[in-house]
Write a structure and sequence with these properties.
Largest interface: A-B, 40 and 53 residues
Strand order of the largest sheet of chain A: 2-3-1-4-5
Strand order of the largest sheet of chain B: 10-9-13-11-12
Strand content of chain A: 5-15%
CATH architecture of the largest domain in chain B: 3-Layer(aba) Sandwich
Helix content of chain B: 40-55%
Helix content of chain A: 40-55%
Number of strands of chain A: 5
Shape of chain B: globular
CATH class of the largest domain in chain A: Alpha Beta
Structural class of chain B: alpha/beta
Largest sheet of chain A: 5 strands, mixed
Oligomer: heterodimer
CATH superfamily of the largest domain in chain B: NADH-ubiquinone oxidoreductase 51kDa subunit
Number of strands of chain B: 13
Distance between the termini of chain B: 73 Å
Largest sheet of chain B: 5 strands, mixed
Radius of gyration of chain B: 25 Å
Shape of chain A: elongated
Strand content of chain B: 5-15%
Number of helices of chain A: 7
């Protein structure tokens, strides 16, 4: 069961605002992800019962779209744009270097849950490719050195060198 | 929120047709009272470079120098030079400043506005970038404040809607669109007039309109920029389409990855609703039409016309067979018109200036202009709008300035992951639907990505196949399994285990996938494979026979092991 708290109240309100229409499922999942950060089993079951949809359908929709996260992300999220422009300009090298440096695979979090690395198809900031989103900040014309430096600063790591 | 409550909150009165003209005049008078207007580009391309800080700095500097009464600072959409952001345009005279910082902002106000001396060393010097462009859809971009409906009305906005409501019958509107020769800007290039006729002829209600802003192609941001810079053009286009086809309800389907565009459209819709331009009895006439936003959630296939319908209905974005076409049976089995937002944004101008005027722009078979995001290895990446029919060479070298650092041009990818890679010899190809399709590429939603000698064509083709493998919805076996087989073959070639017969296999399986897939994703997914095989066959042979990659991208890891043994 979903815990009774403000987030649940707000989700209920969003569902009510959409008049319990099944067609608003995507909107409601967006709202739920905004509130909880990801979509777990309890949230999906709650949405399914509220909209009177089979849980399998709700899970199917949530799993189909890339934007919905079914696993809890880490404290800090680094998203590498893997659009064509960024790829041509070396996004792959950057993410490989980050994976190696912090010992984490793309789509996953570090063991201590501090850092998650994701790739996304295109954030549309192609003119300053390659672009990386670190938490909410977009880093344009990124290089692996800059990105690793920024992540280290974020994690408060001792390894950070002064640049 | 109901429109009544909004009216109450904001004190906006319900507009009538004549009020639009009146409002435009008042607003223009207000504009004229300023001697200078500083347009600060605050689109997604410039904000990460600090555009919002620059905007604030301009506002403060104007106050500091006491020139509030003669200088207006406006937050606008994309000016087009995304590579030198934040970009700032000072009117009159269209002085374009590049890479503006808060400190430079103060200098611009002091020198340009107060002393009347443009700061020459900060001006954007590349005139060629704009020379070959033709701004039609993006004519307001970078000039108006997208959050102010009054700005749009002052620029002639909503006058086309008034013209339709007062003086034209739905049939006359469709005739005008027919005459313009406008074709769908989403990629397939279907005649818009014909599509509208199909929907208008369907005598069933309710009828729906879906505006497609699911710009899923990686490396493309033309539609996003349009929505951020001129949201009301899309809304007005939809309203006119609704009037012509007698539709009742519209949805704008937009990617959730575009938060600024979503916010801009949301605010624009609220404003339009409050001013009686969207909703019941628009401008106190019998015409009613409501528009809702629907957020996508990151599925490339959702841009396909039947998949988008499934997604708007709240389901997985699986395409379905056609016929029945959406014009006969679309959303909730009702007649539905699906148009790309760029197509819709063309409509107000076609109605204002006439279809004949529009048909003279561009090439005879492809009229009008097309917005492209020009990215990759070019000196001047950015958002461009060109008349149809100019050549790829003009776009890449004259507007884009060619590859930077004296690198050699290698290929251009037109039309996103399902487009094609064209070599130097094809650069004199005019940009129109037929020529591009003949060369093996597609128009797509408007992406041109230039690659230079540093990229390996085998690796590039695999990048697109990886994308399509991820994005295939899994419904049709040829697309789901076939693309996987292609991916495996590429991995083998790049690891150094390629065999000469692999090339024939790639060709044959690609044609199976094209023939046997239901939707556009599968039908076009093998395009990068086929075009790279066709134009860069030599590189494949080098990979397979000599185990060599000229760009040094491929590891040939299995080959290395054998050598070591």
């Amino acid at each position: 069961m979903l815990k009774e708290d403000n987030r649940k109240l707000m989700l209920e309100k969003a569902i009510k605002d959409h008049q319990y229409q099944a067609s608003a499922l995507l909107e409601i999942l967006h709202k739920a992800q905004e509130l909880y950060g990801y979509l777990n089993r309890e949230i999906l079951s709650f949405v399914a019962s509220s909209l009177k949809l089979p849980p399998s359908h709700v899970y199917g929709v949530a799993a189909f779209y890339n934007y919905f996260r079914l696993k809890q992300p880490g404290e800090h999220v680094v998203t590498t744009c893997m659009g064509t422009a960024c790829y041509v300009k070396g996004a792959e090298d950057i993410i490989s270097a980050v994976e190696k440096e912090f010992n984490v695979k793309r789509g996953d979090s570090t063991a201590d849950g501090k850092l998650s690395i994701f790739t996304t198809r295109c954030i549309g900031a192609c003119a300053m490719a390659p672009s990386i989103v670190i938490d909410d900040e977009v880093v344009g014309k990124a290089t692996k050195e800059i990105v690793i430096e920024k992540i280290k600063l974020l994690l408060g790591g001792k390894k950070t060198e002064t640049s | 929120m109901s429109s009544k409550r909004l009216n109450f909150c904001w004190g906006v009165k319900k507009l009538k047709p004549a009020d639009i003209i009146h409002l435009a005049e008042t607003e223009l008078d207000a504009h004229r009272s300023y001697k200078y207007r500083i347009n600060v580009c605050c689109s997604s391309g410039c904000i990460p470079f600090g555009a919002l800080k620059v905007l604030k700095a301009f506002e403060e500097a104007v106050k500091e120098f006491g020139v509030q009464k003669e200088c207006k600072v406006a937050r606008t959409g994309c000016i087009g030079t995304c590579s030198v952001g934040p970009a700032v345009m000072v009117e009159p005279g269209d002085y374009l400043y590049q890479s503006v910082t808060p400190e430079k902002a103060r200098q611009i106000v002091r020198d340009h506005v107060v002393l009347g001396l443009p700061v020459k060393e900060m001006l954007y010097g590349n005139k060629a970038y704009f020379e070959k462009q033709h701004r039609l859809v993006m004519k307001n971009a970078g000039k108006i404040d997208p959050y102010r409906i009054e700005d749009y009305i002052a620029a002639g906005g909503y006058s086309a809607l008034v013209k339709c409501l007062l003086r034209m019958s739905p049939k006359e509107v469709i005739d005008e669109v027919w005459l313009s020769g406008l074709r769908g800007r989403g990629g397939a290039g279907f005649k818009t007039g014909q599509k509208w006729t199909f929907v208008a002829r369907a005598h069933r209600s309710p009828k729906y309109i879906v505006a497609n802003l699911d710009e899923g192609d990686p490396g493309v941001f033309a539609n996003r920029t349009l929505a951020e810079a001129d949201p009301h053009a899309i809304i007005e286009g939809m309203l006119i389409a609704a009037y012509a086809t007698e539709a009742n309800k519209g949805y704008i389907y937009i990617r959730a990855e575009y938060p600024l565009a979503v916010e801009t459209l949301k605010k624009a819709l609220d404003r339009a609703r409050a001013m009686n331009l969207v909703g019941q009895n628009i401008l106190e006439t019998n015409f009613s039409f409501d528009i809702e936003l629907r957020l996508g959630a990151g599925a490339f296939v959702a841009g396909e016309e039947t998949a988008i319908l499934a997604s708007v209905e709240g389901n997985r974005a699986n395409p379905r067979p056609r016929p029945p076409y959406p014009a006969a049976s679309g959303l909730w089995k009702s007649p539905t018109l699906i148009d790309n937002v760029e197509t819709l944004a063309n409509i107000p101008q076609i109605i204002s200036h006439g279809g004949l005027w529009f048909s003279k722009i561009g090439s005879p078979t492809c009229t009008g202009t097309k917005c492209f995001s020009l990215t990759g290895k070019v000196k001047n990446p950015g958002l461009i709008e060109i008349p149809m029919g100019i050549t790829l060479r003009e776009v890449i070298f004259d507007i884009g300035g060619g590859p930077p650092d004296n690198k050699k041009f290698k290929a251009v990818l037109v039309g996103g992951p399902s487009g094609g890679c064209l070599p130097e010899t094809m650069l004199d190809l005019p940009i129109d639907y037929e020529s591009l399709t003949k060369a093996g590429a597609i128009m797509g939603s408007g992406g041109i990505v230039v690659i230079d000698e540093d990229s390996c064509m085998v690796d590039t083709a695999k990048f697109f196949i990886d994308f399509c493998v991820d994005e295939s919805c899994g419904k049709c076996t040829p697309c789901r399994v076939g693309l996987h087989k292609i991916q495996e073959t590429y991995t083998r070639i790049m690891d150094g285990e390629g065999k000469p017969e692999d090339l024939d296999f790639l060709r044959s399986i690609s044609s199976y996938i094209q023939d046997a897939s239901l939707c556009g994703l599968g039908q076009t997914a093998p395009n990068p494979v086929l075009t790279t095989l066709r134009y860069f066959g030599k590189e494949y042979n080098e990979h397979i026979v000599d185990k060599k990659c000229v760009a040094g991208k491929c590891s040939f890891k299995h080959q290395v092991k054998e050598d070591e043994l």
